[in-house]
Every structure is written in C-alpha cells, then in structure tokens.
Amino acid sequence: MSQRNPMNERYQSEQPKGQTKKSAAAAKPKAKAAASVYVRPAGHTPKEKKAIKKAQRAKQAELDRMFYNPPTEQYKKLRRIWWVLLISAIVLTVLGMIMPNFMPDNIWATWICIIPAYGCIIGALWLDFSKIRKVRRAYQMEMMKKHPKEVKQHMATNAANQVAQQKEDARKAKKEAKAAKPVKRFGHVFGGKKEAEPSAEQEAQKKAAAEKEAAEAKAKEDASKPIAQLKAEREAAKKAEREAAAHEDCSK
Questions:
Q1: According to the model, what pLDDT value does residue 187 have?
Q2: What transmembrane ranges does the database entry give (predicted)?
Q3: In this predicted model, what pLDDT tens digit does every residue of 152-197 receive, in sequence order?
C-alpha cells in the first residue's frame, strides 16, 4: 500500500507501526494439569456400600436361623426373665381391664395395673434388643470360630436351597398361569378372528329384517293366489277375530 502523506504524525514516530491483535486462544481459560483424570475416592461408592450392607444382613439372618437359641446358661436365664416380664405385662393388662368392675369408685384401680404392665413391656423389649441379642451374637461368633467349615457349608447349602425354591415357585406360577389361560378355538389357532357378540341394536335390526322378509314373502304368495281364495281367507280371518272378541266378552 502506498504512503499517502509522509508528514503525517503516524509516519514520523520511530515506534513500530500499527498494533497486533491477540489470538483467540489467549482468551480461553487455562485448564489445570490432569483436570480430566478421575481419581477414585478411597472409600466405597454408595452402590457398593448398599451391596455390602445387604450381604451383611443376609449373613446375619442366616446366622440367626442357625444359632437363634444358644444353649448357654446365661441365655436361658435372660430368656426366663424375658418370659416373666412378658407374662406379667399380660396379666397386669387383663387386671387393669377388669378392676373397674370390682372397684367402680376407685379411679386409680386401672392405672395401678396398667402402669406396671407398660413397665414390664418396655423391660422385655430392652432385654430382648440389648442383653439377649449380645449373648446371641457372641455365641454365633464363637461357633463361627470353632466350626468355620460347617457354618460356611450350611450357609452355602441354604443359599442353594433358596435359589432352588425360588425356581420351583416360578415354575409353579408359570404352570398355574398357563392352566388358567382360556383355550383358544380352532379358528383362533389358524389366525381366525373371534366373532363379536351381537348387541341389542343388531338383534333388533336382524329381527326387523326377518319380519320384512316374511311380509314380502307373504305378499308374493298372496299375489300368486286367485282372488276368490284371498277373499275366502280374509273372511275366515275376520270371522275368527269376531269369535275371539265374543269369547272375551263372555269371559268378562
């Protein structure tokens, strides 16, 4: 491009002429190093935690089925106390219900029995969920340490039995559903359509068409008969109507 005016100020300075435009890459935010790398957390994921808890619950349920009533003196003693509390709660509740019949003037007769009954129920629940459960778990751990092979074998056998039972139940349900399914007709087997049941309107239309056809057939028959025969039949019909009317009058 030619220089227009050499005396212009922009051509008099010794600095670089013009300016450079910054590239678009400079405006982009810089990503951190290894920002796209996924670092797995040290613990388990929520799904893994849920699966672990489910497996632990299944294992504990199997142990409870195997060793629910430990044959130890401590367990038997706690279980006897539990039964005493439970029976006492039942007896006190019954007494609280029938005491007002014997002491109608004493308003505290019911509460004297109901409050201890509630105490016995709470005590039985606390004993079952704290003391008895701890003794049962301790016995289960002891049995697992003493007989690990037998316990594992029993648990594996029980799991296999449960799977087999589920398959058997599914097979029975499928068989029952198949037996309850209605048998198709011959036409249905070869793709024939099931005939729809006629509605009341269709039946009325069929009846009217049949009556119309009967009337037309009778008209054709009358047209083919001679006139004398038609007159005789009409007179006979009128006579029959008169006799029927006279019979009705006599009966009245």
A1: 47
A2: 81-102, 108-127
A3: 666 666 666 667 777 778 888 887 877 776 655 544 444 545 555 5
pLDDT, tens only, 33-64: 566 666 666 777 788 888 888 888 877 777 77
Residue at 135 is within a domain: yes
pTM above 0.70, yes or no: no
Report the candidate in 119, 109, 134, 110 with the shortest Cα–Cα distance to residue 86: 119
The amino acid present at 77, given as its one-letter code, is K
Q: How many angstroms separate the CA atoms of 234 and 226, rounded? A: 13
Which one-letter amino acid corresponds to residue 201? E
Q: Could you list the residue range(s) of the whole structural domain that residue 79 is in?
A: 74-139
- Structural domain includes residue 65: no
**Residue 113: in which H helix or E strand, if any?**
helix 109-126
Number of domains present in the structure of the chain: 1
Torsion from C-alpha of 167, 172, 176, 178, nearest 10 degrees: 50
SS3 154: helix
Cα distance between residue 89 and residue 150, in whole Å: 41
The torsion angles phi and psi of 75, rounded to 5 degrees, stand at: -65, -40
**Which residues lie closer than 8 Å to 67 by C-beta, 6 or more apart?**
136, 139, 140, 143
Q: Is 232 among the domain residues?
A: no
Backbone torsion region of residue 106, taken as left when φ is above 0, otherwise alpha when ψ lies between -120 and 50, otherwise beta:
beta
The number of beta carbons lying within 10 Å of the beta carbon of residue 136 is 19
In a domain, 87, yes or no: yes
